[in-house]
Hints:
With about 150 residues, chain A is of the alpha+beta class.
Amino acid sequence: xxxxxxxxxxxVGAITANFIADxxxxxxxxxxxxxxxxxxxxxxxxxxEDKFVMAIEYSAYQEMAEQKFYEIxxxxxxxxxxxxxxIYHSLGIVKxxxxxxxxxxxxxxxxxxxxxCQEIVEQVKLxxxxxxxxxxxxxxxxxxxxx
Amino acid sequence: MKINIIVFGQLYDMTxxxxxxxxxxxxxEQLTQKIMERFPLLSEFKFSMAVNxxxxxGNTILNNEDIVALLPAFSGG
Lengths: 147, 77
């Protein structure tokens, strides 16, 4: 059975290592899976005009973002042979070194998981109305630009 | 005819309001003109527009109570 239920993608604050571990563990009963590919986006301490980034505050147009995430999921299931797919993105403050994006793709064989995971991450960055504000030590901030 | 506008990201730093309404416009070109009259600082920014959660390209007809979102470049992930 293909698992493609619609879920809420957003999590307030960082995505914890425990949450990721529990997500992996929850798949052990899906015995048709032969490969998982996981992407984790981590908040980086960029140096911008002599100041280090300490955190990113994420905001989103949530209704449109949830719809876009759903479309990205549907497109991935249509194009690749996937067993399941989970996407989580942070909202609010995520500190440097913490995880803000978790994409978890599972398939029968590795190639579908590898290819789909890469494409999904690119589509999330391109299509989903989410904005990051980089916050410095002195509490000043600058809007993040994706490269 | 009333259009509801919602503002995100750095555009909000310019408008200082998260939402407002604009009346008596038929399409996104007229709407953009009225928005710029009200918030001249926005003309310095590149942004896209979503009408009822769908990104529109070029001039688009608007209907009463449409929700138009002003979206600066995305920076998720």
